[in-house]
Amino acid sequence: MIAVAVACTTMAVASIQPASADIFNLANSNGGDGFVTLSPGGFDLFGADNGASQNYTTYTATALTSQTFTVNWAYTTNDCCGSVWDPAGYVINGVYTQLSTDSSVQGQVDSNGSFTVSVLAGDVYGMYVYSPDSVEGRGDISVSVDAGTTPLPAALPLLATGIGGLGLVCWRKKRKPAARAV
């Protein structure tokens, strides 16, 4: 009985592991020349700068499992007219959330931060740089991601079974009559 309880507990703890790696794809919506460079634990996403007019450069994946991420990001623009011309942020299922500041100050404007986001299996998520004019310099968002774990409720039934089994073993030991001394 103890072996069964230990096995159930081990299975429950083993199921609380980092989620599987999703495969990301780069896309430019209007013939832009945006690109991505990979780095250990993250990437840099660069917006378009080839005169393609309005262009979303996205780097997205479809979640294979439900996951939680903590995303650390840093934004830089090389646009002559400020970050308002190359905003960047994250996208989940087609909903764009801007992270960069809107500044029309000439030259480089930096912003950075972190956020935590949860996605469900099948959600399309990732980062973007929007270039309304695709000229005068690129926006760049550098990203590093700390993958969370599969939410505990998914493993809770197995954990409860293991703890319940251990409780049953302890209860049975207490009920056993003690040997009488003669």
Care to describe what's here?
This protein is α+β, with helices and mostly antiparallel strands. The protein folds into 2 domains: 35 residues, no CATH class; 132 residues, Sandwich (Jelly Rolls). 18% of the residues lie in helices and 38% in strands. It has 2 helices and 10 strands, in the order H-E-E-E-E-E-E-E-E-E-E-H. The protein has a 5-stranded antiparallel sheet with strand order 1-4-9-6-7, with no helix packed on it. A 5-stranded antiparallel sheet has the order 2-3-10-5-8, with no helix packed on it. Strand 6 and strand 7 form a beta hairpin. It is elongated and about 80 Å long. The N terminus is likely disordered.
- What are the low-pLDDT stretches, counting only 5+ consecutive residues below 50? 1-19, 149-156
Number of E strands? 10
CATH topology of the largest domain: Jelly Rolls
Strand proportion, as a percent range, falls in 35-45%
The neighbouring-strand order within the major sheet is 1-4-9-6-7
DSSP summary: helix tally = 2
CATH class designation of the largest domain: Mainly Beta
Based on helices, strands and strand pairing, what is the structural class?
alpha+beta
Based on the structure given, which CATH architecture of the largest domain is correct?
A: Sandwich
Secondary-structure element string? HEEEEEEEEEEH
What spatial form do the alpha-carbon principal axes imply?
elongated
Binned, the helix content reads 10-25%
